[in-house]
């Protein structure tokens, strides 16, 4: 949801719906995605203009879709994303939408510094699943967590203080 509540985007499995009137009405826009299977998470900039949705299922290649017009149209974002049988778990976005971080089920972290147009793999630590990401309004401070059996606590949380350029325990 945008900071004023005007723009709302909801993902639920195979359905992507958007509202531009404070939730007064919603329109399904899933048909505009090349694959709307297993939509997982959405992040929205403060003004609602930039929106990113992540998708995928176990054994399938994940997808990232970006909207730069408040959810009216969506484009697949593939630059820097390899053809992997993985899916994206979670996404976080800075208030202006310029910095974005997505996590994968297979232990990868991808960061975008150009509003989701391209992505850079930042790290992989074993095969544990990255499950949650949060960031400050500027994107400078980021925290990611993961789940897994018998993980030492220092390996369960990583922090970035440089907009996702590096992540450290």
Task: Annotate the secondary structure layout.
Elements: E1 8-12, E2 15-19, E3 27-28, E4 39-44, E5 51-55, E6 63-67, E7 75-76, E8 88-93, E9 100-104, E10 108-112, E11 120-124, E12 129-135, E13 142-147, E14 157-160
Would you count the extended β strands for me? 14
The biggest sheet amounts to: 4 strands, antiparallel
User: How do the strands line up in the largest sheet?
Assistant: 4-5-6-7
Oligomer: single chain
First-last Cα distance = 31 Å
Poorly predicted runs of 5 or more residues: none
Q: What's the helix count?
A: 0
Q: How would you characterize the overall build of this protein?
A:
This protein has 169 residues and is mainly beta. It is built from no helices and 14 strands. The protein has a four-stranded antiparallel beta sheet with strand order 4-5-6-7, with no helix packed on it. A four-stranded antiparallel beta sheet has the order 8-9-10-11, with no helix packed on it. Strand 1 and strand 2 (15-19) form a beta hairpin. It is globular and about 45 Å long. The protein starts with 7 loop residues before the first strand and ends in a 9-residue tail after the last strand. The mean pLDDT is 87.
In short:
The protein has 169 residues and is an all-beta fold. 0% of the residues lie in helices and 40% in strands.
List keywords for this structure.
4-stranded antiparallel beta sheet; mainly beta; 169 residues; globular; 0% helix; single chain
